[in-house]
Amino acid sequence: KITVYTFLLGILGQAVTPFIALGVGVNITTGPGWRYLFVIGGIIAIIALVMRFELPESPRWLAMRKRDIKGAEKVLDSMEKLAVSKVGKLPEPKPQDVVIYENKFPTKYLFKKPYSTRLGILAAMWFLWYIGNYGFLGDAATLISSLNTSVSPNAILYIAVGAIGYPVGAIIMLFVADRYERKFVILGDTVVWLIGML
């Protein structure tokens, strides 16, 4: 569910952007116009970059990769203090022996069976999905405007209304993601996506 919440926050940007474009298109008829959208995106990217430095490093990664035990303990202490400030006193952790296996997986195995077939399917799926999804979304306004249909004058509004489906779909996944196997969820999503593209 944490993954879905993260995706939901990110996807809200895609849902809001067309409405921002509507405002920019209406209020700025000459001059830079739509270029302000890139300025808005750039500001958000800078904010994300600054916030990145506030994120704590993974204690496990510090301990295993950098052999920085003190750094890992420092991060854990700060996490514990934050948890105590939010929920109060924490129960004492139960001591247990942890065995860590660090078997490396050579990349060349990905190109041998059975992984090569799976890798091929994954690559084809992502290629077709990106072409179908972002290829359409990137040029949708221009494409719709050039068709001279009843929605052509309001192409951005048409896309903005459709973009509402992004957060709606993510919210639905909050209730579906952990109830069904991923393969069935992905299949169902793909069918709905295909119908929407048609």
TrEMBL record:
Coiled coil: none annotated. The chain crosses the membrane at residues 7-28, 34-55, 119-136, 156-177. The keyword Cell inner membrane does not apply. Residues 1-198 form the Major facilitator superfamily (MFS) profile domain. It comes from mine drainage metagenome. Its main location: membrane. GO terms for cellular component: membrane. This is Major facilitator superfamily MFS_1. PROSITE patterns: MFS (PS50850). It is a multi-pass membrane protein. One of its GO terms (molecular function) is transmembrane transporter activity.
